Amino acid sequence: MKLYINTLGEFDIKSNGNSILMQSKRTYKLYKLFEYFLTFRNKKLLPENIIDNLLSESDSDDPKNILRTQIFRLRKVIKSFVQHDEDKSKYINLNFKNGYYCLDLGENIVIDIDEFEELIRKGDTERENNTQNSIQYYENAIELYKGAYLSDNAYEVWLVPTRNYYQRLYQKTLLKLIELLKVNNNYEKVISLCEKSLLIEPYDELIHENLMEAMINLGQSKAALNHYEYAYKLLERELDTKPSEQFTGFLDKIQNLNFKNNDIDISGIKNNLDEEFIYGALHCDLAYFKVLYNLEKRKSIRKNEDNYLCIINYSSCEKSCTAWSSLLEKTLRKGDVFSFWNENQILILLYNVKEDGINIIIDRIFNKIKKCKEIKKDEVKIVFQPLFREDVITNY
């Protein structure tokens, strides 16, 4: 009888395809201790290091005694995994020798990370001579990766190096597999593979890019555009930053595919130019803001003094950028544009501000600030100047 240990994703131990773990409050800490030994298997571990990693928050005056008690109970649980007539040395052995603990796995234990690495090694070996075999090995390895290493322990510091190692190995293997599939023009499989992988690694730009590239190569411009818009918003929201230039470059590729036949279709072009949702002021990056500013300067012959440049100075905090973005999008008009100059300043272009319009805008901004916990009203200063007159400056 063999025991199979799952670590890529949720931790589990199976026999004949069925879980043999006992789920209870008493076993939770024991399994956490077992996961620690499993992560550092075949290594000598000092009790003091185990205590520092697992029992540092304990109020006990004798943490070594707590550790000994937990290890005693863990050994009993480990024994329960194996039938009485089986040779225990072929399974899981937790030994203590010369002041060190050490976990050894016998020949009847199969652990998914060993299989994962072995399949990748075989795929690398076959890559040059037999790409079909290599693809199969890589696919089997990718199939084993159900999620981050021991994902049920999300916040354990001692897990970070091992978790990062297997995550990077998964990402590298995925990209190698995608490259082999692209050589064979198997873009349908690339799409399927990327869609499944994004369930595990939703914020990996390279996976999104390979998915869109495969859609483009299959002529699926509408699907590629839909995914671009979805991924852009996801990455911007969750990572609190704009996606890379390589990612945003896919928009041009998708649009080129839409109009590669050079037919003049003004309605189609207009639909692609239109924003999906138009609400509030436009938040743009600094480069685009500069383009809009200089466009207005080119119109200076009109001497339109109803357009203004505004600068907001504020004290920054961790959430202030997000708070300012939300506040200005809801407070300014649809035709107004704003961008962050730096972490303490915001630039705003205000168009066609008539009569007492500046005072109205100021009142709106400060009324919103009163309701915002992330922005301190007393540390906000706002300066206005007509776009084409440098002799008039208004401070608030």
TrEMBL record:
Keywords for the protein's UniProt record, in alphabetical order: TPR repeat
GO BP terms in the entry: regulation of DNA-templated transcription
Superkingdom in the source lineage: Bacteria
Protein name: Bacterial transcriptional activator domain-containing protein
Species name: Sedimentibacter hydroxybenzoicus DSM 7310
Residue stretches of each TPR repeat: 212-245
GO molecular function: DNA binding
Domain Bacterial transcriptional activator: 111-255
PANTHER family: TRANSCRIPTIONAL ACTIVATOR DOMAIN, TRANSCRIPTIONAL REGULATOR REDD-RELATED
Signal peptide per UniProt: none
Pfam families with a match to the protein in the record: BTAD (PF03704)
